[in-house]
Amino acid sequence: MYTKVERNLRELGVDVTTDPVVVSRYATDESIFSVMPEMIVTPHSTEEVQTLTRTVAAYTKDYPDISLTVRAAGTGLSGGSLNDSIIVDALSLQGIDEIVNDSVWVRPGTYFRDLEQFISKQDYYFPPYPSSKDICTIGGMVANNAAGPNSLKYGHTSEFVDQLEVVMSDGSVEVFGVVTYKELQVKLNLENKAGDLYRHVWNLVERDFDGVRSINPGSSKNSAGYEIWDVLDAQSVDAFKKGEGRFN
Length: 248
What we know:
This protein is α/β, with parallel strands linked by helices. It is built from 10 helices and 8 strands.
């Protein structure tokens, strides 16, 4: 099966390798775990990531164990960048746009050290860096909601994210960010994976808003799952429907 995937990706111009020496380098990260992947894919653009996800999605019906795990610097301590299927190396996806209205678009493979150097020249500061700041990437920081010595005062990485441009598992691209109730209605009608996600999360929040908020452990750092209690910033679902607050 992986031979077919490899051949298809090569025919589509996507950089892929199954060289055992190369593949073995991706079997470990900074955690205590070791998991040998089947192949490594290195996309160089959003379009190649879309091609990759669509190609792999076509195999999931017959081969449900096939999956993608994105990896950048591999500095995580929980083994989150490891997978026994396909590793997507994001280090080739680097780049920093100009700062506009106190915000800047950064590609996921960009090293924090490069962003720090870029923004410091313009008197900006990105405080929630972890101890691996000299070798970690922005994509990894976002994926793990990274925190560090300044986080108790300034907050975690998620609190400094305005928007995320995401390639969904069907290859569609969605920009996630703050939406009003009116804007959410448009998102709920999307006929793609992004629409599925909006509908799923909104149904959870609308059905049991108080219950969702009650599971917030109130800890200063939480890396256990998704912080769904922060998705809807409003006093109640009814208040949100009347125009109060935001859904993010």
